[in-house]
Amino acid sequence: MTATLHTAPVTIPDTTDQRVVRRRLGPGHRIRFSFWFGPALALAIWSIGSATGLIKPAILSAPWDVVVAFQDQWVNHDLLGNIVASLQRSLVGLTLGVVTGAVLAVISGLSRFGESLIDGPIQIKRSVPTLAIIPLFIAWFGIGEEMKVITIALISLVPIYIHTHNGLRGIDGKYAELAETIGINHGEFIRHVVLPGALPGFLLGMRFAVTSSLLGLVVVEHYNAVAGIGYMITLAEQYGQTDVIVVGLVIYGIFGYCADSAVRFTGRRVLAWRQTLEG
C-alpha cells in the first residue's frame, strides 16, 4: 500500500501589502493636519493661563490683547509693510546663503583639493558665532541693508554646507563599485547617484538654515532699521507696549513654522522614494 502525502500549497506573503499595512497601522501613520496640534495646544495653555490670571499681563499679554494690537498695527500702522520688509531681507539673505553653501559643499564634497581649500575655513567660521561678527560687518558695509543681508546669508550658509557636505561624503562605496561594474562614467555617477543621495542632507540643512536666517533677521533688524518686524518691536520696547512686542514675536514664529513646514513638505515629495518613519 502506498501512502499519499498531501501537502498544503505554499503561499508567499505579499510584502508590498504588509508594508502598506504597517504604514497604515504602525507608528509611522501620519495624522492629517497633525502639524497644527502642537501650536494649538500652546495657544490653549496661553489662553487658559491668561484667563485664570496665572500669566500676568505684565509678563505676557493675553492672546485677545495681542489680536487687538495686531489689528491696531494693521489699520493704524504699516504692519503689512513691516512684514514685507522682513520677508524680503530674510528671503534675499537665505537665497544667497543657500546657493553659496550648496556650491561650496559640492566643490568640497566632490574634490579632495576643494575640500582642503574650503572645509577648513568653513569649520573655523562654524566655531565663531556670526552675530559676534556684526560689529565688523558694520565697519565694512555700514548699517544699511547690505550688512543685514550679508549677515543672514552667512548664518544660513553654514548649515547648508555642513549637511550637504556630509551627505556627499556619506554615499555608500558600494554604489561606486556598482557603477564601475555596469560601466557608468564619472559624470553620470555624480548626477544620478551622488547628488540625489546628498539631497536628504541638503534638505536637513535647509531646515536649519531657515531657522538660522530668522535668528539673524531678529538681530539685524535692531540695527538702524526703518522698516521690518524688528523695527516695530524696537519702537514697542521704547513705549513699553508688550502686546505689540508679542505681535512681532508671533509673526516671527509663524514665519519660521511655515517655512519649516514647507521644507518638510517638499522633502516628503522629493524624497518619496525613501522609506523612512516619517514618510
TrEMBL record:
Main location: membrane
Cellular component, GO, one term: plasma membrane
Name of one Pfam family that matches: BPD_transp_1
This protein's UniProt keywords: Cell membrane, Membrane, Transmembrane, Transmembrane helix, Transport
Gene3D superfamilies to which the protein is assigned, alphabetical: MetI-like
Transmembrane segments: 33-55, 91-114, 126-143, 149-168, 214-233, 239-259
Record has Transmembrane as a keyword: yes
GO biological process: transmembrane transport
CDD domains: TM_PBP2 (cd06261)
Annotated ranges, domain ABC transmembrane type-1: 83-263
Subcellular location: Cell membrane
Membrane topology: Multi-pass membrane protein
Entry annotated with the keyword Cell membrane: yes
Family per record: Belongs to the binding-protein-dependent transport system permease family.
Entry-linked PANTHER family: ALIPHATIC SULFONATES TRANSPORT PERMEASE PROTEIN SSUC-RELATED, ALKANE SULFONATE ABC TRANSPORTER-RELATED, MEMBRANE SUBUNIT
Protein name: ABC transporter permease
Organism: Actinoplanes lobatus
Lineage: Bacteria, Bacillati, Actinomycetota, Actinomycetes, Micromonosporales
